[in-house]
Structure formats: structure tokens, C-alpha cells
């Protein structure tokens, strides 16, 4: 299915089966945001989703947020974009998947303040660093963190169900063993991936420390998409107070001890500084 398919077209294609008519009714029963507002479909706890929230807030783009329920996100996002990963942003009637593509679209939609340097080689370098943290850090950090936090049911339940009503929280808590198995399978979470994740996190910290310029930024003299991406994807290791959805506290167990052992690393102190200087308040509009 085309990623750019509008919700109207998708709704039209779904019209024929009874089950799908029910889906239409559920969607129609929800209050819809004003047509012009972008809608972010997201997981509150996810660092890839934090990357896009930060870009929207940095640019001061009023938007609506819809928190996804784990599991139910698969049909919803697949219907919208042909793939099942969040974040997904509906902008100008088009559903866009992937944080990098979303930020590129936001740059076109609201060029000022820009996250892309105007000079070509600096822009290319910032996009390369964005790609590096997406590919070499994002999934690996998630595998490491989830490997440890899924062993702590209370922590995991509180984190994952933040923002849901009581029934959603209760279902996740009651069926946690089923959810845990699904996360382990879906995200390929196991001891080997956690070990690899730990090594990749250390390598990413080394690279960020090597890339940091005298200006205190990764590229040139100012804040770019490279800084935003690296800081957002490392945020679970810092838990800065500016995070819009607070985590239940220090990571549990061995992951928490690992974080503490890294607290003095310049790269993690830099993440806290990027949040302090550049993470504005949310531009979310109540739907
Ligand atoms: N490359 C994607 C990665 C997004 C991603 O991995 N999202 C995860 C949450 S951290 C997800 O939605 N996974 C759900 C699934 O695979 O079912 C991006 O930059 O947006």
C-alpha cells in the first residue's frame, strides 16, 4: 500500500466487509481534529517517537497526538502506511512513516526554525549522523533496554501503558506474560541481542564524543537534526526532566546499573544539555 495514501482513500477501499465497516464506525465515533492539524500516531515510551515529537515541538507545529495500544497498532498503522512501525505522522492528508522521512517532510512544511544546516556539506554530515544513530543505535538500545525492563513487570507495565485509561492498563497488566512474549518475538529480544546492544551503545557514545565540535554541537555552530536524533535516541539512558512522558524512574536492574556506570560520559552529559537548551514544551493540541 502507498505510504502517501490519504485516509479518505484508505477508508474507501475498506468499505466492503462488515468487520471493516465496524472499524469505520469506531474511527467516525472519535472526535476528529481540525482538518489542518497534523496527527502524530505514537508510542509514548519510544525513543524513535520522541525524536519526532521533539521535531514537532522544536518547530512549534501545533499537532494532535494519538497514543497507540501495543498490538492494535499493527492493523492501524498497516492500514495507514503499509508498515507497522511508529511514529506515523498524518500531514496534509498524507500518512508518513519513519522518523527521518517525517522530519524531512516537516522541514518542507515549516522550514523555520530549520533542523537542516543551509550549507550543503554540513547538511550532508548532519543527515549521515542522523542515519548513523537511527541504524547503529536506535534498535540496539531498544533491544538492550527491553531485555532488562521486561524482567520487571511493574516497571514495564507502568512505562508502556502511560496515557491509557484504566481498562487498557488493566488488560496489559493481566496479560503481561503474553505481551512480554510478543515483544520478545517482535523486537527479537534475547540475551545475544542485549549483549550486542550494550556494545553498540558504547560504540555510539564513542562516536558522538569524537564527533562533537568545539561549538558543543555535532555539526557546525548550531543545533541540527544530528543533535536532536542522537539526544532523543539516547534519552532512555539519561531520562532528562524535559522528556514529555516521564519514565517510572531509573531503569530497573542491570540496565540501571549500566546507565549509572556511564553517567559521567561526556556524550550523556551532552544529551542532558541538548534537552535543557533545545527541548521546548509540547506543541500538542488537545483533540
Ligand atoms: N526507522 C524507524 C524505526 C521506528 C521503530 O522501530 N518503531 C518501533 C518503536 S521504537 C515500533 O513502532 N515498533 C512496532 C512494531 O514493530 O510492531 C523510524 O525511524 O521511525
Give a structural overview.
- 57% of the residues lie in helices and 6% in strands.
- The protein is built from 13 helices and four strands.
- Bound molecules: glutathione.
- Glutathione binds next to helix 5 and helix 6.
- Level-1 CATH class name of the largest domain: Mainly Alpha
What topology, given as strand order, has the largest sheet? 2-1-3-4
Number of strands: 4
Strand share of the residues? 5-15%
Task: Write down the Rg.
Answer: 19 Å
What name does the CATH topology of the largest domain carry? Glutathione S-transferase Yfyf (Class Pi), Chain A, domain 2
Question: In the CATH hierarchy, what is the architecture of the largest domain at level 2?
Answer: Up-down Bundle
Count of the separate structural domains = 2
Enumerate the spans where pLDDT stays under 50 for 5 or more consecutive residues.
Answer: 1-29
Residue share in helices? 55-70%
Major beta sheet summary: 4 strands, mixed
Shape verdict: globular
Q: Give the cofactors and ligands.
A: glutathione
Instruction: Give the count of helical stretches.
Output: 13
SSE order in H/E notation?
HHEHEHEEHHHHHHHHH
Mean pLDDT: 90
| Secondary structure category | mainly alpha
Distance from N terminus to C terminus (CA atoms, Å) equals 27 Å
